[in-house]
Amino acid sequence: MTANPGFEPVFCTIIPPHVLDTLAQSDDATLAGPARRTLERDSIERTRRRLTTVIGAPPVSLPKEAAADKPHRTIYDAKHKTELPGRKVRGEGERPGKDATVNRAYAGLGATFELYLKTYRRNSIDGSGLPLNATVHYGEKYGNAFWNGEQMVFGDGDGEIFLDFTIPVDVIGHELTHGVVQYTANLTYFGQPGALNESFADVFGSLIKQYTLGQTAADADWLIGAGLLAPRVTGKALRSMKAPGTAYDDDVLGKDPQPADMDHYVRTGRDNGGVHINSGIPNRAFYLVADALGGNAWERAGQIWYAVLTGGRLAQDGSFADFAKLTVAAAREKYGDGDELKAVIDAWSQVKVDTN
């Protein structure tokens, strides 16, 4: 079965619906109100994404003055409204302004572009120099960030549970990687392929953070969204790739529900079949490979994952086992029967996904 017969962009958010559902049921109006508005906004944007998929999005062309090996970034300010893209506040090559959110968004788009170009020879999200557009200050206390198939959007958070969504560079990299998935394997956003979609976004979001900070696999914290949770939250991040299920344990948010292996796979109808939950399993597999190989995770481990994502053999409805077998094949093709192959096989064995 071939991958990506014609991509269908999906609406992908960094905060899972089940987390916002929990907040929306809080007795504290300062928590419930923003969460409910965020859920309502997400529902509208999700519907808009479906309509755009049916009628088609306007074509996007690379400006003539943009170099093939340079990003073309534009940052817009929604001014706490929801019309996209908003007012242009910074273009490619323009100096930083006084708005730290704008500057972080601009830098995060650049960091993502740089990793994909320099490490994987990929020219922007689509591989053909797609302009990178982002809108900041979206909505009123909007508690999410998303890729809508065409651009990035960042909320400011409510200040009680979530802070500014441009703070963690891996959140920016995560959402833009959904765009890469859209233009490559185009994984169905439900069940195991949906969890793989989320896992790819976490993996490369983490690699963008590590690349930006110059961290080895041993140096990295392997957390997704560190710095996003407000001080009142008992937790350190949204997810942990190293130890799924340990990112937070809070009296309001509840406990991180991610499983670390297939014995604890969560079967649910929520969150598109648990796409943000069961992604913990392939996330941990990647961490185990990177940890076993050492050095920079974006190199050998990242190259194996990228080869499968872009290789054309991962079906849109591919399962964890399908993906695991392809990573084994990619490790063997790229590196032979050495440490890389052993690390991949051992990692999937530890998370109890069959590679035979």
Describe what you observe in this structure.
- Helices cover 42% and strands 9% of the residues.
- The chain is globular and about 55 Å long.
- It has helices at 17-24, 29-55, 100-120, 169-183, 191-213, 271-274, 280-293, 300-310, 320-335, 339-350; strands at residues 12-13, 73-77, 87-91, 132-136, 145-147, 152-154, 223-224, 239-240, 249-250, 254-255.
- The strands form three sheets. Strands 1-5-6-4-2-3 form a six-stranded mixed beta sheet, covered by helices on one side. Strands 7-8 form a two-stranded antiparallel ribbon.
- Helix 3 (100-120) crosses helix 4 and helix 7 runs antiparallel to helix 10.
- The chain contains ten helices and ten strands.
- Residues 1-7 and 52-57 have low confidence and may be disordered.
Provide keyphrases for this structure:
single chain; 356 residues; alpha+beta; two-stranded antiparallel ribbon; 10 helices; 10 strands; globular; disordered N terminus
Strand content: 5-15%
* Strand numbers in spatial order across the main sheet: 1-5-6-4-2-3
Relative helix content: 40-55%
Largest sheet: 6 strands, mixed
Low-confidence stretches: 1-7, 52-57
Summed over residues and divided by their number, the pLDDT gives a mean of 93
The N- and C-terminal alpha carbons lie at a distance of 19 Å
By DSSP, the count of extended strands is: 10
Query: Which outline best applies?
Result: globular
**What is the string of SSEs from the N terminus onward?**
EHHEEHEEEHHEEEEHHHHH
Integer-rounded radius of gyration = 19 Å
